[in-house]
Write a sequence for this structure.
């Protein structure tokens, strides 16, 4: 090809920039009710599909399997079982955390769903798959209608 | 079916409801920064702009002299063959007059944006730029214009090394 | 007929189109998809595949949003594809659904399109900025309205068209939308209202533009033998076409969309249409701006170059005219949740051909209809031709 090559690397240009975006997400019909229940009543809720005999947590307004509209909301309690967990020693950009953080996928007992959240008040060495845990909520006046209204899950007997 | 349906799904919201927190929302501002590679053709183009010149590439098969330059001709699908300088004068192919800024707020002095077909490039080979030193009501299609460059010490190797085009 | 099997649309669904809807994107998909399934008397078990369309992830603010919308689109554990071609997505998703079934690979396909532009704060215009070349356009502060204005002005200049003639399209479509139950911006306006509205970027004024919106639309497609069991009134997809030009939009004469013509020719050839103005009974070309309806009417070969404003002024494109254009109210009247807007047009033609469009019904028993979408950086056209 007869195009002259650029041999001086300082001549190759890079163009810096960013994507300007900022987001406000609505939680939706199901999400609005789920988070309001946590905020106002300290309750974790789910929706039940009668046809498939499933309880969804987080709740949804439709069943992904049979596509029926779900209108039965139930209080699913605050206890769960650790399905899997990890202990993080570094944060999002790779720098060391002061204290290791335990993240777990917690199946809410009696349902077919669960939440990903933090485990605290536990030694990372003692955390096991199958361990029973319970949600620890922030005091009502500090709750905002967010997943962080649950401070963490802690081991229960 | 359309005529028989009484209710269509959807719960409309007013922006006030969102702003005043009447609906629960989450806020997130992603940090998305980029360092795009200009590539072989555009690197040369930008370097030439710093020198006060506009360069294009020629495809010998279809004969087009293309600006912005490219290392391959997208129509013949082969490498381009030659770098060719084009003039910094041209004609107005189309223009529009903006009374709003990027964030949709109104601006006092309108910005005249245009596509300018450059002399020396193939017909219709335009680049996007601004027109100034003329009242927006007097701009005409086909008007002849010339680039007004920044002084050499202010040029950085960007399309804005040309401040704007002015009528000649 | 191309393909192994003839493909029909047997059901359609639509949500409200509004600037801001409370539902998440998934819930919007569910609303439209469930309606489409119910209208065809089908359940998820009857669906073999899903073709989903949505425009940039940046609008909803969900990276990989196709994957996110899966359960609301009925695609749980099913073969799923997402297609995306900017504004052309809505009609192209229907084209993609077509090949799912025409190939013989699937008997049924759910076609779903969704957009939730309200998440992008303070305005989705910001998400558009990275569509532009970072070196040639962004440093100038380019906005989307600038480039539409450049195209509109070139079109006006080449044919000597005045703003008053173009404003008639906005008046017609917003009025048509008064009869659409999902419409966001239906209104009775006059040409004077358009000409007196705020100048955004000359020659574009506020009432020339469609809004940004949230919404979803869905169709159920079925192969011939299956369709005939589901309904006595299938609407056949007889032609599909799509075409793309390069992003070097400043190197094109913007007065005419060649790529729309190529997409149209591909669809007309498949459908055996030789004289589009005579053989098409009703059309829904893409109208994000009023001049675009005219631009696309010409690109679709529904009239000669430069002739579209004349047909509009003569009333030919009204619902009771010889060639009704955008009887739904289009994007200008109903709303513009990008991908869902294009699919809304296909839903409209489906309902029109079945005589189910209620107050929007065009008279005269239409049998052949067309929907078209357009997108990206003034470079893409997708077309679908439907027949009863």
């Amino acid at each position: 090809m007869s195009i002259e090559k650029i041999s001086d690397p300082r001549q190759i240009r890079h163009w810096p920039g960013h994507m300007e975006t900022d987001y406000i997400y609505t939680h939706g019909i199901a999400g609005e009710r789920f988070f309001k229940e946590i905020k106002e009543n300290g309750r974790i809720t789910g929706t039940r599909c009668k046809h498939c005999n499933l309880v969804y947590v987080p709740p949804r307004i439709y069943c992904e399997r049979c596509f029926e509209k779900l209108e039965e909301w139930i209080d699913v309690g605050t206890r769960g079982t650790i399905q899997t967990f990890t202990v993080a020693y570094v944060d999002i950009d790779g720098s060391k955390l002061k204290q290791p953080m335990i993240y777990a996928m917690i199946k809410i007992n009696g349902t077919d769903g669960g939440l990903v959240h933090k485990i605290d008040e536990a030694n990372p060495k003692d955390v096991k798959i199958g361990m029973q845990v319970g949600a620890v909520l922030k005091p009502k006046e500090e709750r905002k209608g967010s997943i962080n209204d649950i401070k963490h899950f802690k081991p229960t007997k | 079916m359309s005529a028989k349906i009484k209710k269509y799904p959807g719960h409309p919201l007013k922006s006030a409801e969102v702003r005043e927190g009447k609906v629960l929302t989450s806020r997130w501002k992603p940090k998305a920064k980029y360092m795009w590679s200009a590539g072989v053709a555009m690197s040369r183009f930008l370097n030439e702009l710093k020198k006060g010149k506009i360069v294009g590439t020629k495809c010998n098969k279809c004969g087009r002299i293309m600006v912005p330059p490219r290392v391959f001709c997208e129509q013949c699908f082969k490498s381009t063959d030659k770098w060719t300088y084009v003039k910094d004068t041209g004609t107005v192919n189309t223009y529009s007059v903006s009374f709003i800024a990027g964030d949709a707020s109104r601006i006092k002095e309108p910005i005249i944006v245009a596509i300018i077909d450059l002399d020396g490039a193939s017909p219709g080979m335009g680049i996007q730029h601004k027109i100034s030193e003329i009242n927006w009501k007097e701009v005409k299609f086909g008007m002849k214009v010339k680039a007004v460059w920044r002084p050499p010490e202010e040029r950085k190797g960007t399309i804005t090394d040309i401040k704007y085009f002015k009528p000649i | 007929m191309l393909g192994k099997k003839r493909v029909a649309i047997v059901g359609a669904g639509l949500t409200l189109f509004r600037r801001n809807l409370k539902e998440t994107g998934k819930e919007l998909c569910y609303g439209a998809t469930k309606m489409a399934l119910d209208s065809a008397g089908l359940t998820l078990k009857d669906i073999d595949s899903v073709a989903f369309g949505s425009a940039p992830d940046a609008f909803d603010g969900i990276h990989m949003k196709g994957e996110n919308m899966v359960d609301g689109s009925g695609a749980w554990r099913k073969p799923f594809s997402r297609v995306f071609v900017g504004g052309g997505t809505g009609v192209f998703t229907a084209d993609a659904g077509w090949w799912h079934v025409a190939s013989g690979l699937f008997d049924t396909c759910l076609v779903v399109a969704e957009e939730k532009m309200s998440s992008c704060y303070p305005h989705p215009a910001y998400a558009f900025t990275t569509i532009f070349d970072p070196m040639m356009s962004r440093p100038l502060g380019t906005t989307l309205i600038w480039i539409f204005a450049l195209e509109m002005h070139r079109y006006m200049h080449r044919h000597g068209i005045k703003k008053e003639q173009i404003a008639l399209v906005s008046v017609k479509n917003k009025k048509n939308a008064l009869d659409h139950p999902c419409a966001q911006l239906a209104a009775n306006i006059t040409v004077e209202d358009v000409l007196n509205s705020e100048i955004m970027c000359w020659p574009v004024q506020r009432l020339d533009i469609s809004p940004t919106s949230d919404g979803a639309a869905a169709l159920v497609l079925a192969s011939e033998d299956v369709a005939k069991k589901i309904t006595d009134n299938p609407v056949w997809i007889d032609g599909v076409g799509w075409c793309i030009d390069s992003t070097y939009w400043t190197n094109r004469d913007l007065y005419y969309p060649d790529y729309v013509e190529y997409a149209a020719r591909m669809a007309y050839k498949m459908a055996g249409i030789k004289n589009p103005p005579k053989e098409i009974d009703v059309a829904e070309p893409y109208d994000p701006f009023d001049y675009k309806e005219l631009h696309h009417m010409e690109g679709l070969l529904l009239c000669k170059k430069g002739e579209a404003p004349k047909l509009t002024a003569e009333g030919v494109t009204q619902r009771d005219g010889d060639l009704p254009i955008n009887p739904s109210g289009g994007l200008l009247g109903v709303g513009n949740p990008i991908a869902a807007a294009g699919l809304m047009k296909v839903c409209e033609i489906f309902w029109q051909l079945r005589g189910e469009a209620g107050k929007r019904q065009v008279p005269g028993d239409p049998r052949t209809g067309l929907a078209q979408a357009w997108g990206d950086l003034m470079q893409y056209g997708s077309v679908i031709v439907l027949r009863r």
Summary: The domain at 7-122+211-387 of chain C is CATH 3.40.47.10 (Peroxisomal Thiolase; Chain A, domain 1). Chain C has 15 helices and twelve strands.
